[in-house]
Undecaprenyl-diphosphatase (Pseudorhizobium tarimense), 268 residues
Amino acid sequence: MPEASIVSALVLGLIEGLTEFIPVSSTAHVLLAGHFLGFESPGNTFAVLIQLGAILAILLVYFRRLLDIALDLPTSPKARHFGLAVLLAFLPAAVIGALAHDFIKTILFETPALMCVVLILGGIVLLLVDRMPLQPRYTDVTDYPLSLAFKIGLFQCLAMVPGTSRSGATIVGSLLLGTDKRSAAEFSFFLAMPTMLGAFTLDLYKNRDAISFDDGAVIAIGFVAAFVTALFVVRSLLNFVSSRGFAPFAWWRIFVGMAGLIGLFVFG
């Protein structure tokens, strides 16, 4: 196994875990990094498989809370309301993602310049929204109205364009619709679970013929790196957002987008 492949897998796994749940677009970061590292993965199967590490990390962190909600479903209207809210928020992306999957993967995911531009534009939007004097009306994710959850789900569909960021789209949408920053980030976590599991399952099915476990060690390295770093991010993000807001992520998006455009111009 080439040493370069091991290093690339480690780097890409770290990037996946660090960026999956923050509003900077993990997809753009992983694909751009893979482009400049010269990392080849037919059908982007490596990125598909290591994403499972990030999924497991958030399930582990929220396992107790998910279990409590599941146990309360038969007797608690509030638990049933929250479960339905997450389901409604998930549906728009599930439908559009299934219908447009091939176009997204074969066209949008193969256009690095587009990702860079969207990173910059998304950073500017996030910066503007973060500075708006918005008055939150909703601060508890379990009390989000069903109509609000569905609208947040519509915002999530913007993340079909790589560089937008799934968490960034849902957080910006949530803030504009009247939530506070902490609950917006937390609802994004809960919405990530069915969305990421659905996307992972669909990607795995679509790329089943391209997946090879001959490079199992490379995949394992990326998977573990994504799991460990995502675990750290999920456990620390809510407190960070409550105290610092989203401006640091906005500036990082702009920096990465500009650096990516310069890199593409210089190196191709």
The two ends are 27 Å apart (CA to CA). The chain has a mean pLDDT of 88. The chain has one domain: 3-267.
